Amino acid sequence: MITWKRAKKYCLFAVLFVLVALIGLVTFEYNTSYFQSHYFTKFAASLDYEIKDGPSDSIAFPSHGPYNIQNGYTRLPDFSSRLQQNGFDISKQSRFAEPLMRYSRWGGNPPYQTPPQTGLTIFGENGSTLFSAREPQSYFRNYAEIPPLLLKSLLFIENRELLVEKSPTKNPVVEWDRLTQAAFSRVLHPGESGPGGSTLATQMEKYRYSPRGLTSDHNEKLRQLVSASVRYYHSDKSSRDARKMIVLDYLNSTPLSGRAGYGEIHGIGDGLKRWYGIDLKYANYVLTSTSDTVGINEKARVYKAALSLLLSQRRPSYYLLEGRDELEKLTTSYLRILAKNGIVGAALRDAAITQQLTFVGREVLPPTSFVERKAINNVRNELLTRLGVNSLYTLDRLDLTVNTTIAGETQAKVESLLKQATNLDYAKDSGLMGERLLREGQLSALSYSVLLYERTPRGNVLRVQTDNLNMPFDMNTGSKLDLGSTAKLRTLITYLDIIEKVYLKYREFSSKDLLFARNVAEDPLRRWTIDQLIANPKIELMALLDAAMQRKYSANPGESFFTAGGLHKFGNFDKLDNSRTLTVADALYRSVNLVFVRMMRDVARYYTLEIPGSREVLLDRGEPRRQDYLYRFADLEGNIYLNQFYNQYKQLNAPSILQHLASRTKPFPGRLTMAFRSVRPDADVAALNSFLTMRLSADELAEADVDKLYRQYDPERFNSNDRAYLSRVHPLELWLVRYLLENDNPSHSTIVEASAAVRQDAYSWLTKSRKQRAQDRSIRILLERDAFVAIHHQWKRMGYPFGSLIASYATALGASADRPLALAELMGILVNDGIRVPFRQIDSLKFASGTPYETAFERASPVGERVLSSEISQTVRNALAGVVENGTARRLKGLFLDASGKPIQVGGKTGTGDHKIKSYGAGGRLIAEESVNRNAIFSFYIGDRFFGVILAHVGGATSGGFEFTSGLATQLLKIIQPVLAPMMRENASAETDKPKGDAPR
User: How sure is the predictor about 998, in pLDDT bands with cuts at 50, 70 and 90?
Assistant: First the structure.
C-alpha cells in the first residue's frame, strides 16, 4: 500500500523527470532544430507553384516590400490590366498551390531563390541583347568569390553561428542567445537602440519584404522569422550550401542608400564602386592578396571601405550621407574589436585606423550616344505608356524582359553607315556629293534617319529605326516637317478614292439616270467618272482607276488660284514642265507641282459640293444659312487676328503695352490720340500728353492742341470700327489692349471667351447687303475649310498624324507637313492591300521570371482595318513603281534582287521640303526671308514585305545654303542596300500571309 509520503516522493520524481526531459528536449531542439526542420521542411515542400499557359486563377501578388515594389511585383495586376487593354494577352502565368495561397494570405513571403540581378532587359529579333539595366552591376557570382577577410568580418558582426557546423538540421534564421539579449534590452531600456537580434536571413526578409523595409511590430518580426525559416528549409541545397547562399545573397543585396545620377545602391559590389570608387574585382584582388603583392596601406584602405559598408547597413542613408564622421568613428571602433577577436591582424588594424574613409564625388558618366539608343528609347517610351510607369528610372528597375522585333545586327550596321556618311571621303566615294546633293562643308550639319518595317503574319513589325542626330529627339516619330512632294501621294490616293466612291454610287444606274446625273454634276471628278460609266457601263473598277491615272492636267503655272483666303500662284521644279499637259501617272513620276495643285482643286470642289446646301448658300442671296456662315467667318477670322495680337502683348507690362501700341500706327497726333483714348477712356489729359511723347517730337507736341485732341477723340462718339479707322489700329487689337490693362494677367481662354461679341462687332460691316461680293468670298473661304476637314478625315484614315490640314491647294505640295513614321504607315497600308495594320515593335514581355509571380504576355494577333480597296492599293503601288522605273527615284532601278538574282519591284515617292518663313510688304513685295529647315525624303516599299522611309534633314538658318533634293534620300537607300539585303534574304522564306481585316468595301 502506497502511503501519502511515498506518493509525494513519486510525484516529485515524475516532475523532475519531466523537467529534465523537457530541458533535454529544449536543449536538443536548441542545438539541432530537429522538430523545426521537420515541420518547416514538410510545410515548405507544400508551398509549390507551376507555370502554365494562359492567365492564372490562383495567384496572390504582394502589396508591399521594397524589393517587390522595385521589381514591379506589387503592380503586376495593374500592368496586366493595362497590357490586356492594349493588345496583349497573358500567355503564361504562375499557379499557386492551395497551401501557398493560404500562406501568402497570412502574410508569408513565398519561398524562392531570388536572382542576383534584376532589371529591364530588351532583346532583339534574334535574341541579342539590345539594352540591359540589370542591377546590381557588380556582385559576387558565387560564394568562392567572397574574400575570407570580408566573410569573417561580416559573420562576426551580424551572424556568428551561421557557418558553425553544429547540426545539419540547425535553423540558421534564429540565434537564440542574441535574440534573447535583444529582447531583454528592449524591455529594460525601451526606446533606446541596442544590440539587434536579427540574423542575416531575417535582415533580408526585413529590407526586402517588410513594409518600408522596417520591423513595425512583433507580428512583423514573427512574419520575418517564419518566412526566413520557410525559405531556408525550402532550399534543395545541402545545409552548409544553403547557409553559404544566405551570405552570398546578403552581400549582393544589402541596401546602401542612393546617389543622385545613379539611384538606389544595393550590394557591397555596387556600394564600393559608387561610394568609394573601388571596383569589386579590384577589391577581391586586394583583399585576397598577400603582403608581398599588395601593400598593407592599400589593403587597409579597401578593407576599411568594405567594412564601413557592412556597418552602414544599420542606417545607410544617415551614415553614407550626412553622418560620415559618425561612420568613421564606428568603423574605427569595430577595427579594434575585430582585431581583439582575431579577425584582423594588428598591422592591418593600425594601417586602417590611420586612413580616413575617402568618398568619391558624384560619378561623371560618359556622354550617352542617343544615336545608338533611338530604337531602344522608343521601346522604353512605349513601355512607359503601356504600363503607366512615370519615369525611365522606375521602368529600368522592373524585373522585366522584353522581346522586340528589331533586327539588332542590321540596325547596328545602318547606324554605323549613317555615322560614316558625315565623313567627307566616305561621302565622296558613296555618291553623296554633287549637283543637287551635297557640297564640301555641309556634311556635319546634316542628319539622316532610316525607318524600315516588314509585313509579317504578326503584323507590320519594326526592323530598323535609327538616325545620326545625337539628341534624344527622334525625327521619325516626333517631328513635324515640310516633306514636300510626298503629299502628292496622299493627294493621289484621295483623288482615286473619290473616283471609286462615285463609281460605286453610280455603277448600277441606268443609262437614262446616268445622263441625268451627268447633267447635274458640277465637279470635274464626278463628271469624268460618270462619263466613263456612260461610255462603258460594264467597266471594272481596276480599269477605271487605270484610266484615272491617264487623265490629263495642265502644268501651266500662269493661272492664279483662289485658295486659303487669297489668290496664289505656284511653280514647277522643272521649268520644262510649264508648257506640258501631263497624265496623272507621268506627273507623279516627274513630281510636277501644278498638276497636283489642280488635282487638289478638283478634290476640294468634290468635297465642297458634298456639303449639304453648299450650292444654295453661294448662289441664293436670300438663303438663311448665309448669315450663319458669315457669323462663323467673323468668329474664325477674329480669332486669328486676336491670337496674333495676344502673342505680341502677352509678355508685356502696362507701360510696355502702351509703348507697343504707340508703335502700331503712324505718329500723327489724331491717330495716336484715338488709339490711346480707346484703351484708356478714363485717363486725363496729362496721361494723353505722356502717351503722345512716346512717338511725337517736342516740336510736334508743341504744335498739337492736346486739350482739343482729348475732346475731339472722345471714344464715346465712335463705335469700335470707327475708332479702328481713325487710329488705323485693328478693332480687336484696341479691345485686347484695353482688356489687358484693365485685367490682371488674364488667361488666353478667358480672353477668347470675353471677346466673342467683340469679334462679331468687328465684322459687322460684312453683313450689310452692299457687301455681297465680300460675303461670297467669305463663304467660299469657309466652304473650302469645311472641304479640307473632309479631306483631313480621309487622310487621317491613312495615318496622317496631325489634327488638321491647312485649307489650301498648297497642301498637295506639303504645306500641311507630315511625319516620317506616318508616311511609313501609309506605305504599310499599300503593301497590305489597303488594310491598316498596327505597327509593332514589342512581341512579348515577361515579368518576374523564375519567381512565383512569373507572368508572360504576348502581342495578340493583329486585326487590320480596311481603309482602301485592294484596287486602289494596287494602282498606287504600280504608280510608285513607275517613280523608280522612270521617275525621280530611278537611281534605285534594279538595285534590290531576290535569291535567284531577279529584280524585286521597288516603288516609292520622293519629296523635297524647303521650309522658309517669308514676310511681305505692300504690293506683295518680299521684305524678309528666314530659313527653318530643308528635307529630302523617300517613302518606299521593297517587294511585298518591306517598306519604310529615308530622310535627310538640316535645320536652322544654315539650311538656306543647301540645295539638295530628294535624290539625296534615294542615294542613301542605295548606300545601305548591301546592309539590308542579307536580312531580307534571310526572311524571304518566312510565311507572308496578310493579316486578316474586314471585308473590302
Answer: very low
Q: 91 pLDDT exceeds 50?
A: yes
Q: And the C-alpha cell for 273? A: 564602386
Q: What angle do CA 60, 63, 66 make, to 5 degrees?
A: 125
Task: Using the Cα atoms of residue 806, residue 807, residue 812 and residue 815 in order, give the sign of their dihedral.
Answer: negative
Tally Cβ neighbours within 10 Å of residue 166.
11
Report phi then psi at 8, rounded to 5.
Answer: -65, -35
SS3 of 942-954: the string is ECCCEEEEEEEEE
- In DSSP terms, 936 is beta-bridged to 912, 952
Asked which of 170-174, 322-326, 534-538, 836-840 is least confident by mean pLDDT, the reply is 170-174
Rounded to whole angstroms, the Cα distance separating 283 from 273 reads 10
Q: How far apart are CA 876 and CA 878, in angstroms?
A: 5
pLDDT tens-place string over residues 289-344: 887 888 899 999 999 999 999 999 889 999 999 999 999 999 999 999 999 999 99
CA distance 249 to 116: 7
Question: Three cell numbers at 554?
Answer: 495642265
504 vs 846: CA distance, rounded Å: 49
Question: For residues 327 and 305, what is the distance between their CA atoms, to the nearest angstrom?
Answer: 10
Work out the burial of residue 89: count CB atoms within 10 Å of its CB; fewer than 13 is exposed, 13-18 middle, 19 or more buried. Answer: middle
Q: Cβ(110)–Cβ(49) under 8 Å?
A: yes
Block residue for cell numbers 497636283: 596
pLDDT tens-place string over residues 727-768: 999 999 999 999 999 998 899 899 989 888 888 888 777 766
* Residue 357: alpha-carbon gap to chain centroid: 42
Dihedral sign (CA 511, 513, 518, 523)? negative
Give dist(CA 963, CA 757) in Å, integer. 49
DSSP one-letter string for 101-140: HHHHHHTPPPP----S-BS-EEE-TTS-EEEE--B-SS--
Residue 356's contacts (CB-CB under 8 Å, 6 or more residues apart) are: 328
Angstrom distance (rounded) from CA 58 to CA 325: 51
Q: Does residue 174 carry a pLDDT above 90?
A: no
φ, ψ at 910 (rounded to 5°): -90, 160
The C-alpha atoms of residue 811 and residue 561 are separated, in whole angstroms, by 13
Strand order, beta sheet including 842-847: 49-53, 88-96, 855-859, 842-847, 400-404, 121-123, 129-132
Contact 134, 274 (CB under 8 A): no
- What CA–CA distance (Å, rounded) separates 799 from 821? 9
Query: Could you give the CA distance from residue 225 to residue 197 in angstroms, rounded to a whole number?
Result: 11
Cis peptide before 62 (omega within 30 of 0): no
Say whether pTM exceeds 0.85. no
Give the DSSP per-residue string, 844-885.
EEEESTTSTT-EEEEEPPP--EE-S-HHHHHHHHHHHHHHHH
Grid coordinates in use for 947? 517598306
Grid coordinates representing 882 are: 513607275
Kindly state the average pLDDT of the residues 618-626: 63
How would you class 509 by CB atoms within 10 Å of its CB: exposed for 0-12, middle for 13-18, buried for 19 or more? middle
Average pLDDT across the chain, whole number: 87
Model confidence at 994: pLDDT above 50? no
Contact 975, 813 (CB under 8 A): no
**pLDDT tens digits, residue range 215-236?**
888 888 888 888 888 888 887 6
